[in-house]
Every structure is written in C-alpha cells, then in structure tokens.
Amino acid sequence: MTIRILLTVALLMPVFALRGTAAADDHQLKTVKEVPGGLSPEIEKLIDAAGHQIHGEDGAVVELWLLKSLPIKAKFKSSASQLYPFTPGQLLGAMRVPKGAEYTDFRDQDIAPGTYTLRYGLQPEDGNHLGTSDTADFILALPAKYDTKPATIEDFYELSERSGKAAGSTHPAIFSLLDPKEAGKGLKLDEDESAEDWILTFTAKGDVKGKAKEVRIRLVVIGESEA
Asked: Which of 36, 43, 73, 171 could serve as 96's disulfide partner, Cβ 3.0–4.6 Å?
C-alpha cells in the first residue's frame, strides 16, 4: 500500500505521491539542515544544506534541496511552452526518499528510498504527452550514483534514460512544475483539493550572468497526472 493510498484512506480524498485522504494537518513542511549522503563530491559542494522536508502522518516522505545558486537564462520571458528560466537538463538540486517511506512521482511510479539528483526538463511536444499536464515544465529525478557531474545533460534521451532508473522504468521519474506567477509569497505547502495534489511553493536563489536573482517555484511534491 503506497503512502498515497494511506493518505487517501485517511481522508478519502486525494493527494499526489502520497495517496489517501489525509487532512492538511497530516502533511507538514519542515526544514532539514544537512546535505544528503550519496551525492558525488562535485555535486555535493554545490548543494545548499538548507532543505525542505515533507512530513506525513507516518513520518518523513521526501526531502528536497536546491543548489546554492541556480544559473538562469538572461532576458527570459515565460510562455506556454516554458515557464521557468532554466536550461533543459541543468542540475537544480537533490532529493532523498527516507528509508521506510513509500513515494511516487507524477506518473504514479514508485521511487525507492535513496538519494537522487534533480534536473530541469521540458515535456516533449508530441502526441504521446498531450493532456498529461497543464504545463510543460518538470523536474526529473536521477539516482545519484548515475549522475555524478554537475554539467547540463543536453541530450534529452540520455537524461530520460538515466531518470528512468529512478523509477525502474523506461519513462523518466518526473515531478510537475506549476506556473510561478500563481505562487504568491512565502514558503508554504498547500493542498489543491480539486487536483488532489500537494504543492510546495518556495524561492530559489538564482544567478544571471553573475547577478543574484530570486526565482519563485511551485512544485507538485505529492500528486499525479489525471491523464
């Protein structure tokens, strides 16, 4: 039985990677202050030790960290095809699924306990992905042992293949990014009852040609595609 199912049982209402019906009080946002083990030294030194932990009624579900500074595109303008000022394949941070946690991605694929890197990706513009998400922007999880260099993975198929190992699948392990214009202010974890998702909203430290710039991010940390 997945966490998602456990949560649904608790509320008979939806959630994302955690299934079940759980009240908002059953999911809490906490802070972690130590970089996860299992990352390569080259990537570990880039990670901000201050991370976010999603805590469910049975304990920690998933933990997320970002880079100390995220390279972002200069003069970027968001559009329907790309909402975030990142380069596909670029390293964004790290994720850890604690031992004993049952966690799934946006496609309801099981993500085993362990440490993963996080990279930015865009949904392919083909008939296989129509209607699977309201946005084209995603974060992909890659097992840390298969992703040891910080450099951008430019080849889409290589990125997808490595990420698929996180879910033991031919499909990458993905998490949906939502429109940051709807993010509002502050750090928060909200339940979208209409979509049965839990959304983490936070601010990332960005860098545009050596100048600091903040980036608002909305990430579906618990929930799955309805398509």
From this structure: 36
If you average pLDDT over residues 18-26, what whole number do you get? 41
Cα angle value 16/21/24 (rounded, 5°)? 80
0.90 cut: is pTM over it? no
Which residues are 189's β-sheet partners? Answer: 200
Buried b (16+ CB within 10 A) or exposed e, 49-71: eebbbbbbbeebbbbbbbbeebb
Is 7 domain-assigned? Answer: no
DSSP state of 129: G
* Domain assignment of residue 19, yes or no: no
Structure tokens that stand for 92 in this block: 């964004």
Q: What region, left, alpha or beta, does residue 26 occupy, with left being phi > 0 and alpha being psi -120 to 50 degrees?
A: alpha
Largest distance between two CA atoms of the chain: 49
| Total count of domains within the chain | 1
- As a whole number of angstroms, the distance between CA 38 and CA 220 comes to 24
Q: Return d(Cα 145, Cα 159) in angstroms, integer.
A: 14
Residue range(s) defining the domain that contains residue 70:
28-222
